[in-house]
TrEMBL record:
Belongs to the allantoicase family. It is an enzyme of class 3 (hydrolase). It comes from the Bacteria. Keywords: Hydrolase, Purine metabolism. The keyword Hydrolase applies. Its EC number is 3.5.3.4. It catalyses: allantoate + H2O = (S)-ureidoglycolate + urea. It comes from Nonomuraea purpurea. This is Probable allantoicase. The gene is alc. Pathway: Nitrogen metabolism; (S)-allantoin degradation; (S)-ureidoglycolate from allantoate (aminidohydrolase route): step 1/1.
Amino acid sequence: MSRFTALPDLALRTLGGCVVLASDESFAEKESLIRPGRPGFQAETFGNKGQVYDGWETRRRRSPGHDWAMVRLGIPGVIRGVVIDTAWFKGNYPPRASVEAAHVDGHPSPEEVLAAEWTEIVPAAELTGDAEHHFAVTDDARYTHVRLNIFPDGGVARLRVHGQARPDLSVHEGLGLDLAALANGALVTACSNEFYSAPNNVIAPGLARHQAEGWETARRRDEGNDWLVIRLAGRGVIALAEIDTTNLLFNAPAAVALTGIDGTREIELLPRTRLQPDTPHRFRLADTEPVTHVRVDIHPDGGLARVRLHGHLTP
């Protein structure tokens, strides 16, 4: 497993990603590239386009050129690595692939994105069938779109674009925002335990549909407690905390506490407070000091569906 895969997948559909255009999708739809979860497969399952694949597959190319799919990132950011997954494509995978990236402000049309200046972030590399291919990226530029090029044709199950979120927060000037939102550039930077699910799930957009879309720890057998640290979207003052235990009926924590961190200073935001299972909790916070990070302590263990920390960025 590559180190960059611990970072959010900026292209993920559940983060707002979209496959805006593809050269061809005759056998399997382009939208599959950015679906969450592992690709599925059931042998000898045929539709009117042939074997059904949980991926993107183009026709056999009989002309010069190559196929491609263009993805708008759900969250613009700095790309640290790309995973090209050919799961289940064993006789119809592309032998080579490359990835390009572009930065286009605003809400451009597909044609405007195509006409943008593209930078190659993953040079053409050999692929094999039914395998994940990990490519680290060293480019520090901020990008809004990526383009997967396959040579000359074939099928790819998933495209993962891992990186550091760099959204435009100027639209929130003078307004409040969720300082802990992944979509606003927050990130879980440390965590005591992630046995069942990833801690960055708690700051993902939307509501968790089931336990796996939150954060859940293993059962603790000592006297300590589990915790995570959230780097906020920016230094700010938090006024309202939302701690959501939805879907966690028998494994919710008994209590939660919030501690703000600003440099070497630690500031109590919420003392140890009782939680209920399967419940959204909202707490007004009295402290008005700005912080850059928040430590979320759960007692003693369990899981959280979402953590929201609403407030204002400092000037």
